[in-house]
Specification:
alpha/beta; six-stranded mixed beta sheet; five-stranded parallel beta sheet; 18 helices; about 15% strand; elongated
Length: about 475
């Protein structure tokens, strides 16, 4: 169990909040350790107090408006011990049915919250008779939609285990009483027919039985059939487009963030930015961009292609700092094009940040002249056309926004040299180049809303957990 999960259970209990983990309790221990999200039913009268408690633990709210369902909220918290994210799926109404639209509202929240027992973890859960009824309903109702049948077919073995778990030592008298109170047109015999079909039957038998069940619980259906069909079709189209084109997940309510990871060669920038993207993109819409090597825009693609051909023919060496010396027109022009591509890249992704997305940037501009990833041209040392080009290059860098967070990675030069020797990379830099770069680019000045100096010579797990904790503080 995550330490965060333990703190959550303890604090909700101390605050006397009425809630329970209302489904999939077979795997509750695994969910408390981050295997899956936690499905919490919270008394609507305790909702504001509940949110206050979880926010005190560092949970944040996020959503995707295209798949949002009213009365269901998503909160995410960072477990600092593991560096992993815990997802709370918070209901104040029992909404279920086909996963995408949850078209049934079983208006029995008070009864469920009044009939809970303690799980071994300490979290309250409904009595098994209640959970069994809803599990049978959920499994069958998913067989009324072709898209859901595809999804549920992947859960056959898990469903068998859950049926065994829920049937074990169930109180039949309580089951019958529950059916009598809220599903009076479903007898014990009918229910066990539904149960048997959900457990073992063919897809066709489950579909036909699900049609019968829908008639039995029609009073709990939230939508007319035409609206339900429309909503399901919308979700199908959106999810296909999203999977292959949009790649949207949830956006945090606090707004998007631009996070820059900077530092000298062999300090771990690529490793860290890749892990941060993997960590955050499980739940949020995240982009990873490389400021040092921007992709050409439509405007600059043919120019960069020409520059590449020229560079290959004259075999230019990797650039290092040349202070106070005017450069060739070719060099000046090349820096203007590079500045434009960097500006275009940042501007395009800054628009995503303004819409609530998280952008992680590998490298970023400093405020120094003539150093890596920054302005190379000082207008004061040029004249005429070159001076104009130098001013244009500077203007592109000046217009770039400040990151919300910037992590400046450092490591002793001897360690950087050894890391560079060890890494597998085509065309990697020489030891001499690494030493020159470290000498010429040390102690760079950056502007950001929050800046952190990170020593990556420490244990990697400690470094990455420290960075994750700092990021979570501003998300």
């Amino acid at each position: 169990m995550y330490k965060l999960s333990q703190n959550l259970i303890e604090l909700l209990g101390q605050s006397k909040i009425r809630y329970c983990h209302w489904k999939s309790n077979l795997l509750l221990n695994e969910a408390l350790a981050g295997y899956d999200d936690l499905d919490l039913l919270v008394d609507k009268n305790d909702q504001s107090k509940f949110e206050k408690v979880i926010k005190s633990l560092g949970f944040i709210e996020a959503s995707n408006p295209h798949i949002h369902i009213n009365n269901i909220k998503h909160f995410y918290g960072l477990d600092t011990n593991s560096g992993q994210i815990l997802h709370l799926h918070v209901y104040n109404k029992i909404l279920t049915g086909p996963s995408w639209i949850k078209s049934y509202h079983f208006n029995i929240e008070d009864y469920i919250l009044a009939n809970v027992e303690k799980h071994e973890s300490g979290m309250p859960v409904p009595k098994k008779c209640i959970e069994l009824v809803f599990f049978v309903f959920r499994v069958l109702l998913k067989h009324t939609k072709l898209t859901e049948i595809i999804l549920v077919s992947k859960e056959i073995e898990r469903n068998k285990k859950e049926f065994l778990y829920l049937n074990d030592a169930i109180n039949k008298a309580e089951l019958i009483e529950f059916l009598r109170l809220y599903f009076s047109n479903i007898s014990e015999k009918h229910f066990y027919h539904f149960l048997a079909t959900a457990k073992e039957s063919s897809l066709l038998a489950k579909y036909l039985k699900a049609r019968q069940l829908k008639k039995k619980i029609i009073k709990y259906n939230r939508y007319p059939s035409i609206i339900e069909s429309y909503k399901n079709m919308y979700q199908l189209v959106y999810r296909i487009v999203n999977k292959f084109i949009l790649h949207q997940k949830k956006k945090v309510y606090s707004g998007g963030k631009l996070i820059a990871i900077v530092g000298l060669d062999a300090t771990g920038k690529t490793t860290i930015t890749t892990e941060l993207q993997k960590w955050l993109s499980k739940n949020f819409t995240v982009s990873l961009i490389h400021f040092g090597k921007p992709i050409s825009s439509v405007l600059t693609y043919p120019i960069n292609l020409l520059i590449k051909i020229i560079k290959n023919n004259i075999k230019l060496k990797p650039s290092v700092k040349k202070v106070g010396k005017p450069q060739s027109l070719f060099y000046v022009f090349r820096q203007v094009i590079l500045a434009y591509d960097r500006y275009h890249l940042v501007r395009r992704h800054w628009k995503k940040v303004s819409k609530g997305e998280i952008v992680i940037c590998d490298r970023y501009k400093s405020e120094d002249y003539g150093v890596m990833d920054s302005r190379r041209l000082s207008p004061g040392i040029y004249r005429g056309f070159k001076k104009k080009l130098a001013s244009i290059e500077n203007s592109f860098y000046n217009k770039m926004p400040q990151p919300d967070m910037l992590f400046y990675l450092t490591v002793p030069v001897e360690v950087a040299v050894q890391r560079n020797k060890d890494r597998i990379k085509e065309g990697k830099e020489s030891e001499k180049f690494i030493r020159i770069r470290h000498e010429q680019n040390k102690d760079l000045q950056y502007q950001a809303r929050k800046k952190y100096l990170i020593d990556t010579y420490k244990m990697y797990n400690d470094v990455i957990k420290d960075i994750k904790t700092k990021i979570w503080d501003i998300i």
